[in-house]
């Protein structure tokens, strides 16, 4: 079930796939980029030297963890260059405007104030995607998927932390209107192995021309 109505397909310069840890952002981004012939921009969590200690609850690791990801994303965007970005299309499993969500969630007030200063200097004029795909799933589903994919750094993520992350995403996208938004109920779908599920998603992407839309393949309300 979808609230989308038929519209004319249009090219996208930049699609961002977002959602909490374990929801399937990277899977969707990879398949979309491959189908669209677009360049792929992925968050490279494995290269963040602070992440394991952050998930393990080590004090003093939240700020360097956050700054590492911020600079990684800024460098990826800078590497595109203005001419290349205008000439090609890109799909990412992150969006820069959402970066402060995790910072506010994890940093102390003085650390967050420092982060905000760094963000303002590092991100002079953040450009919004042409389309944002926001994947949602309940926390028990996120925990199951995290366990199944078996990334070592993620196995120590606490359930209460996932609850806070999922709630922060809901708050962030509740009033988000800077770009067309597709909210997807990803609880009972398998975008990695189901071509039918992915075809439904791709069709929704093609039909969006603006505004906020919902895609519910499970048949229940988001």
Structure description:
The chain is of the alpha/beta class. Helices cover 47% and strands 12% of the residues. The protein has helices spanning 25-36, 51-55, 62-80, 82-87, 99-106, 109-122, 139-149, 159-174, 195-207, and strands at residues 14-18, 39-41, 90-92, 131-136, 181-185, 212-216. It has a 6-stranded parallel sheet with strand order 2-3-1-4-5-6, covered by helices on one side. Helix 9 links the parallel strand 5 (181-185) and strand 6. The N and C termini lie close together (11 Å).
Mean pLDDT: 87
Mind telling me which CATH architecture this is? 3-Layer(aba) Sandwich
What is the H level of CATH, i.e. the homologous superfamily? P-loop containing nucleotide triphosphate hydrolases
Give the structural class. Answer: alpha/beta
Brief sketch in words of this structure:
The protein is an alpha/beta fold and 222 residues long.
Topology of helices and strands:
Elements: E1 14-18, H1 25-36, E2 39-41, H2 51-55, H3 62-80, H4 82-87, E3 90-92, H5 99-106, H6 109-122, E4 131-136, H7 139-149, H8 159-174, E5 181-185, H9 195-207, E6 212-216
Parallel strand pairs: 1-3, 1-4, 2-3, 4-5, 5-6
Helix pairs in contact: 3-5, 3-6, 5-6, 7-8
Which structural traits does this protein have?
single chain, 222 residues, alpha/beta, Rossmann fold, six-stranded parallel sheet, 47% helix, globular
């Amino acid at each position: 079930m979808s609230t989308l109505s038929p519209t004319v397909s249009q090219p996208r310069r930049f699609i961002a796939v977002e959602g909490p840890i374990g929801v399937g952002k990277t899977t969707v981004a990879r398949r979309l980029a491959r189908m669209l012939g677009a360049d792929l921009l992925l968050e490279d969590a494995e290269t963040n030297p602070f992440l394991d200690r952050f998930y393990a609850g080590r004090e003093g690791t939240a700020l360097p963890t956050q700054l590492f990801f911020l600079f990684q994303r800024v460098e990826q965007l800078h590497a595109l260059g203005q001419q290349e970005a205008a000439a090609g299309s890109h799909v990412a499993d992150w969006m820069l405007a959402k970066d402060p969500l995790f910072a506010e969630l994890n940093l102390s007030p003085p650390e967050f104030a420092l982060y905000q200063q760094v963000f303002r200097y590092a991100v002079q004029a953040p450009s919004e995607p042409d389309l944002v795909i926001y994947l949602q799933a309940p926390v028990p589903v996120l925990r199951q998927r995290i366990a199944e994919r078996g990334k070592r750094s993620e196995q120590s993520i606490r359930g209460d932390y996932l609850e806070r992350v999922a709630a922060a995403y809901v708050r962030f996208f509740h009033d988000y209107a800077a770009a067309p938004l597709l909210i997807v109920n990803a609880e009972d779908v398998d975008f990695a192995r189901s071509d039918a599920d992915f075809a439904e998603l791709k069709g929704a992407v093609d039909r969006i021309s603006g505004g906020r839309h919902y895609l519910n393949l499970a048949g229940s309300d988001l």
